[in-house]
Design a protein that fits this description.
The complex is a heterodimer.
Chain A lengths: L13 H6 L3 E5 L2 E6 L10 H10 L2 E4 L4 E6 L3 H8 L12 E7 L5 E11 L2 E6 L4 H12 L5 E4 L4 E7 L3 H6 L14 E6 L2 E7 L8 E7 L2 H14 L6 E2 L2 H10 L34 H10 L4 E7 L10 E4 L4 E11 L4 E8 L9 E6 L2 E8 L15
Parallel strand pairs in A: 3-13
Antiparallel strand pairs in A: 1-2, 3-9, 4-7, 4-8, 5-6, 6-7, 9-12, 10-11, 11-12, 14-17, 14-19, 15-16, 15-18, 16-17, 18-19
Chain B lengths: L7 E2 L4 E6 L2 E6 L1 H7 L2 E5 L6 E2 L4 E7 L3 E5 L4 E6 L2 H4 L3 H4 L7 E5 L11 H11 L1
Antiparallel strand pairs in B: 1-2, 2-3, 3-9, 4-6, 5-8, 6-7, 8-9
The chains are: A alpha+beta, B alpha+beta.
Chain lengths: ~375, ~130
């Protein structure tokens, strides 16, 4: 770990993580847990945490994410103007994956848009782009009759993920969680805290919930500990950013700076299904139309190593005979799939499923196969199983 | 975990156990603990040469790649194949899971390595 002159920002749960002996790292200016050690009877480490989420339940502090509220007579118009998905399709109580684009069609950030009311929206944004997004949103909303509120520091955000995540949360919540559909949200009392936003969302490619509670240390720590206790019978583990990354990678969920960035468009990132060109104009729409017409020079693919070796972020992707053609966006061992996987940008001619490519790992070419995304898909159920 | 007093150590967290002309090399408990769950160990083939201070392979956790540094110069006479299929043994038994065995070409190099006591002091300062 390097010593820096910049003080890292801390979430309200920082002391709780340290108390559990978590290994802390600098994530985009935030001091966050990367993994937790095991303790009496409880396993620890990235792999155990990852498997806990896939098999049962895991708990994440995601308070470093940002929250921007847009409300006012033209809030919907403002949201439509600055995002690529169609917020008009959202019922009150529903959320969608969306993104803010630059006029060039590349990403400012990806966001989850929650419709709190007819003209009332909550955008949940990435930690590393909080300030950039806020300026962007304020600017894009300025021509609309709409207030923009930064609520980022008001909430501690905790994710309870895994098929037993809802069971854990249900023990502490008075809302009937079985009634909350995937990518919908409700309000209820959690750990005695009234009117808590409870969303069936997450970044693990597993079922689960995220709650938004007051960000004072005492409340945050109490709720965190009550969730760990409530989940004990399910073997719930506290999970750090290490497992968060391997979980989202197995599900091929984008990470800013990797699969999406200010140099990548949604077509290149294979996020076509979220782009609603027909909804009307939005920032970046004309650039996207132009790129669709002229064709893509590169596109995101999934790779699976078919011989020994681990493709990692930034490694060069080659043809089967070793000619460089692209770059790994994210690469890692996949603890649940027990394979070494990667997302990568390659020219469309090299993006055919089943095709053999290579990844330069130090001085060798490790053979990989192009596989469909996502690498992992959870078994789908409409409601949490009782 | 105690550091075996009969081994010698490097600041890059390798250990070497010497018997006659043969050195057996692995990584320390401090190293495996810092790495987390080890998923991949890349070692050279028998017959290749180690040069003291130079990298000779890698050990990988899910999150990171770490170089292995040769404590001594020599010819590799054996490689622990077990680690290709069971890399986690390095986590559970770091001082017993050897990686390579070498025939030393310059035993004087051993004098520059750390004793168990010195290594223990060194890692206490690192933490």
């Amino acid at each position: 770990m390097s010593n820096t002159l910049v003080t890292l920002r801390k979430t309200a749960l920082n002391a709780a993580h340290r108390q559990m002996g978590a290994r802390m790292v600098d994530f985009n200016g935030w001091e966050m847990p990367v993994e937790y050690p095991g303790s009496n009877g409880r396993p620890g480490g990235l792999i155990a945490e990852h498997l806990a989420v896939r098999n049962s339940a895991g708990l994440f502090d995601v308070s470093h994410m940002g929250d921007i509220r847009l409300h006012g007579p033209q809030a919907l118009a403002a949201v439509q103007h600055m995002t690529f998905n169609d917020a008009a399709r959202l019922a009150i109580g529903q959320a969608q994956y969306s993104a803010l684009l630059y006029p060039s069609g590349t990403f400012v950030d990806d966001v989850i848009v929650h419709r709190l009311g007819e003209q009332d929206f909550l955008l949940v944004i990435n930690a590393g782009t909080r300030e950039k997004d806020l300026h962007w949103v304020r600017d894009a909303a300025s021509e609309f009759d709409c207030a923009v509120e930064d609520l980022s520091d008001r909430y501690t955000q905790i994710a309870i993920q895994g098929l037993n995540g809802w069971r854990t949360l249900q023990k502490l919540a008075d809302a009937d969680l079985a009634q909350v559909r995937f990518y919908w949200f409700t309000y209820g009392s959690v750990c005695g805290l009234p009117n808590t936003l409870i969303a069936r969302t997450g970044y693990t490619a597993e079922d689960g919930f995220e709650i938004y509670i007051p960000s004072d240390e005492a409340t945050s720590t109490r709720v965190w500990n009550e969730l760990l206790s409530a989940g004990k019978e399910f073997g719930i583990l506290p999970c750090g950013l290490g497992a968060r990354n391997t979980l989202r990678l197995e599900g091929a969920l984008s990470l800013y700076g990797h699969e999406i960035s200010d140099a990548i468009t949604p077509w290149e990132a294979r996020l076509d299904r979220f782009v609603k060109m027909e909804k009307g104009d939005f920032i970046g729409r004309s650039a996207l139309a132009a790129q669709k017409a002229s064709g893509l020079e590169r596109v995101l693919v999934g790779l699976e190593a078919i011989e020994r070796g681990i493709p990692r972020d930034g490694y060069t992707v080659t043809t089967a005979d070793g000619s460089p053609v692209g770059r790994v966006a994210s690469g890692s061992p996949a603890p649940f799939l027990k394979k070494n996987i990667a997302t990568a940008f390659v020219p469309p001619a090299h993006a055919t499923e089943g095709m053999e490519l290579g990844v330069e790992v130090r001085n060798q070419i490790v053979k990989c196969r192009v596989v469909p995304l996502p690498f992992y898909k959870r078994p789908r159920t409409e409601k949490p199983k009782p | 975990m105690a550091y075996p007093p009969e081994y010698k150590y490097t600041k890059e967290h390798e250990w070497i156990a010497v018997e006659g002309e043969t050195g057996t090399i692995g990584i320390t408990d401090f190293a495996q603990n810092s790495l987390g769950d080890i998923v991949f160990v890349e070692l050279p083939k028998a017959g290749s040469t180690l040069t003291a201070g130079k990298t000779f392979g890698t050990v990988e956790s899910v999150k990171a790649v770490s170089d292995l540094y040769a404590p001594v110069s020599g010819a590799i006479v054996a490689v622990n194949d077990e680690l290709a299929t069971a890399p986690e043994k390095v986590n559970s038994n770091p001082h017993g899971s050897w990686m390579v065995k070498v025939t030393l070409t310059n035993p004087a190099e051993l004098a520059g390595l750390l004793s168990a006591a010195d290594y223990e002091k060194f890692v206490a300062e690192e933490q």
